[in-house]
Description:
Elements: H1 4-12, H2 20-36, H3 41-84
Helix pairs in contact: 1-3, 2-3
Amino acid sequence: MTSKTDEAADSSGATDSLGYEQARDELIEVVRRLETGGTTLEESLALWERGEELAKICRRWLDGARARLDAALAGPELGDEEADTDPDS
């Protein structure tokens, strides 16, 4: 028989492959279960730990998206600056 802690540990290896939406949806479910209550202390701790892990995954995805957006927004500006400083023009 496996406990909630064992299930969280088993699934933690697969969390690196979770997409943002998957991690977010699972995090929403974890929060819902914690807010509803009715779980043992051990189950609550396992849910909390899983929630922390899922929040980190979401944060990594969002940070990566922010970096991509920043790079995309900075890209045209760099191209414009190079065109303005072209000695042949």
